[in-house]
Amino acid sequence: MAAPSGSQSDSEGTDEEDTGSTKWKWSELSPFALTAALPEDTRPSDELCQRLRWIRLFWWNVLLVVYALLLLVSSTDRELSSALRQEAVEELFPDWNKAAERMKEGAKTPELKELLHVADVSTTLSLFNDRCRDQSFVSTSLKAVWECKLFDVVVNGLSGAEWDPAMNRHLPDSDSDNVFGHGKKGVFETKIDASSRDLAQERRREMDVICSDIFFQNHVVIGDDPKLIPRGDATAFSEKVVKPATQGGSLHPDFDANTIRGFGQTAIMDSLAHLHNDEQETRKDMEKITRALHLDLHHGRESAEEADSLLERPRASSPAGGHGSARLHRRNPWLIDVDAEDVEGDRAASSASLLQAKEDGSAMNESARQEEREKVAEDDAYYGPGCFDSHDVAGLLRDLWASHIGDGGQNMNMNAAKAMLKEVLPNMTSASLERLWQSINVDDDGNGSLSAKEFLDFAENHLRELQFPVRGYLNLECRNHHFSLLGLCKPASISVLYQIGFVPTTTGSGLVQGISGTRMHIRMIFSQIEPGSGWYKADLRILVKSQVGNISVKVMVLMAAVLTLCLVLTLFDTALTLVLLPLNLLRVLKLDLPSSTSYEEIEHMLWLKVLCIVDARGVLSRTSASLVILSERLIGIFFAAACVQAAREAVMPNSMPMGGMSEQCVYAWLRANKEWIINSVKGNYVEHGLSVLTYVHECTSLHGVEYVGELAFQLLFEEEGSYHALVVGLVFLRVLESFNLSYRLRWLPRTIFLAKFKLINFVIAYVALVAGFALLMTLYFGELYMQYSTLDRSFHTLLVYSFGMTERATYGMKPFIERSGGHLYAALFVFSVFMVTIILNMFTTIVIDAFAAEGDPDKFSRMYQEEVRGLTHSLLSFFGKGHVVARQLRKTHRLSVHKLDQGQSSQQSRGSLASLLGQQEKVEEKVEDKVEDKEVKEVKEQKEAES
């Protein structure tokens, strides 16, 4: 920008001529290649500047189009992901339809709230986990193509109050709820005896065990097998888990109640379970008796008639000749045909034996089908469909290690290690097992123990030889997590992450084609408001991941175009400008402005240095305004930040394979989760899962150009925060420079330019007023309404309320029933009258005045130069050149005083002239009066003479 008045007028489209004293001219935008080819001391003409601006604007339009197309084409499942997100949100915020559906199923219907107590937290987690296990948020029939995985559970800051976990009341040494004392006592006395104190210490020790990181990691975070410890069965949990862990302790049933179904009726549920088991055993016994007697009670009518036709004998009509027909044999199991004296009897016996073999086969098939149905019905009582994963070797090894070493163990002795190895290598002999032990325990220091790392290294090297349960690893979403224990230990924070994936092609062999469908991450975070209070603040985050393996040739071409255009238009100059920024700032600070130089030349020298700060090479500043150059630099910075964020997320372990896993992917999953296995057993949390890069490299069959394109997209353009969408918005604002180049649309940027300082001042005043009202609302209503509990919440609530979004401000308000609601109603009314009706109308007035001034060329030019001069003075003062501003102000003051003096002298001369003219008029009037008097006197004398 040269001589700011002239340069800025060019940038805003005015027709004022330049002074000619400057060597530079800043128009709006010039393309990179053309301006770099211009001679340094050549000032482009107005026509050339205009043409360069249009050419560069054309390339920015091209970047906007290809950038937007890249982000649009890379994701083709927006409707599917939005439908899935809506269904997931309805599970947490149920409407009347969803509530009626849960009432039909006998489940509770809690709603996720901003602030909720720990019982609601456990109920919400249990409900969401129940939906993930059974219905995958959509429907049971869609489990064939949808997978819902509990990816991660994090519990931090376990505390636990002074409480009795076995009795669910105060500890025995507390006077506040002493049920052990007898007799009477004074209010200042205590009846606590030594036995009560000892019992209280024992209960505290049990509390420390239950609320420890190791116990929570193994039984809440990982969870127990519901077939061994059914959900809501507090007796089984207390006997099988709590008692061994606490060496004899117990847990009150309220801390392991079924928060969704059953409502903690453990005794009734146990009785029903026993009755069901007795019924199943009785049926099995009856079926054994039936098979032993070769009886098929469910045999069809057609097979019976066919057998009768084959076995029909003449003697069948004579009961005395034998023991009855074949039909009679089938209907009466106690009649056994042993008569085989004649040939016909032998033939009948052979035919009967053939039919018996057929019937036995049919009975066996029916029996197998019945056993299958019973097995499925039995599993459905504890698991849902898709609860086991045969490829999750990390989970299988963790369960194996934890089952042999117990909670919190780090090293395994030789006997336990050999038993563990015998379990996964059942054909191993004693001699070979001893040799195997010596090869596994490579860092044995004489203590004969096996570490988890040694075992996992062995498992990785011999994975093909290991034998695991047929069904595989029980997934986390199907385990019993005992979320009711959160109410006992009151952790500082709870974080749960679910991954929902669409897997349209899942093959039985486990091979994948390198394509992953829609993936959605749902993370629920509950942070305790005050330590030990049991009240939590909810935070829900729903993110959608891109489809892996969906990068086409068109997407790769668009990626190459976006990177090339960004590099040419902004990235190269932005990087160089940031590198040279400290040096250019130092040059501006050391800028020497001599007093002998005119103020216009000082302005010119200052703007040259300032433009070097945002344009280190000095190419764009020859034809571009400083504000436009700054916008391009911001685009370059945000684009680089978006790419860095995408690369950071690509290397984070935040993915779980969906569908089948190839052999290479299984090994990658094991290597990525070794640290998680070791630390989870010890009660420490570490991140687990695969990074997207590892998933693309190990778990897909992509190769060649498709593989390179997928890696490039994941490293540069796939990020959760939508930073690339923000960059697209900035590019769109940059393209709006076409308004400034169009004669019919130039009124918009000119109006904004004229109103910008007043609008900035208005925003400052508006924010200050809203902050003042927020302070009053916090002091008056902060203890009663959550939206006004803190200053930032009150400010945000009132800010959006002033623009018509009233739901947040009136949440929980009952103005005609509760008195505080009436007071809040009155306060919001005052705020609406003052801020909405009065203050916001000033904003409209500022814009209207600027629009009217833009239509007057003289007024626009005057206001424009005042704005530019004010900005120049601010920059001079900021860089320590305030004396130049003061000198200019003194010079301007002297000039105005001189003009005022000249105006006063000219006014005095005009006044003296007017007084002289007035005196002359008075003299003339007096002369005229005298002449008239003389004429009248002569007329009178003449009349007297005649008379």
Protein described:
Helix 3 (46-73) packs across helix 19 (553-579) and helix 22 (626-650) runs antiparallel to helix 27 (723-735). By secondary structure, the protein is mainly alpha-helical. Among the domains are: 4-73 and 551-581 and 614-652 and 691-741, no CATH class; 273-380, no CATH class; 393-471, Recoverin, domain 1; 747-878, Orthogonal Bundle (Helix Hairpins). A hairpin with a 6-residue loop joins strand 8 and strand 9 (535-545).
Query: Which secondary-structure class do the elements indicate?
Result: mainly alpha
Number of helices: 33
Widest sheet, order of strands: 1-9-8-7-2
What's the pLDDT, averaged over the residues? 77
Beta-strand portion reads 5-15%
Main beta sheet, described?
A: 5 strands, antiparallel
Q: What distance separates the N and C termini?
A: 98 Å
Rg (C-alpha, Å): 45 Å
**Structural shape:** elongated
Low-confidence stretches: 1-38, 263-267, 295-345, 508-512
Number of strands: 9
The helix content is 55-70%
Fold blueprint:
Elements: H1 4-11, H2 32-37, H3 46-73, H4 78-92, H5 96-105, E1 115-117, H6 118-134, E2 146-156, H7 194-210, H8 213-221, H9 234-246, H10 266-292, H11 301-311, H12 326-331, H13 343-380, E3 388-389, H14 393-405, E4 411-413, H15 414-424, H16 430-440, E5 449-451, H17 452-461, E6 473-474, H18 486-489, E7 493-502, E8 519-528, E9 535-545, H19 553-579, H20 581-589, H21 599-614, H22 626-650, H23 663-672, H24 674-682, H25 692-698, H26 704-716, H27 723-735, H28 738-741, H29 747-781, H30 791-801, H31 819-854, H32 857-878, H33 882-946
Antiparallel strand pairs: 1-9, 2-7, 3-6, 4-5, 7-8, 8-9
Helix pairs in contact: 1-32, 3-19, 3-27, 14-15, 14-24, 19-22, 19-26, 20-21, 22-27, 25-26, 29-30, 29-31, 32-33
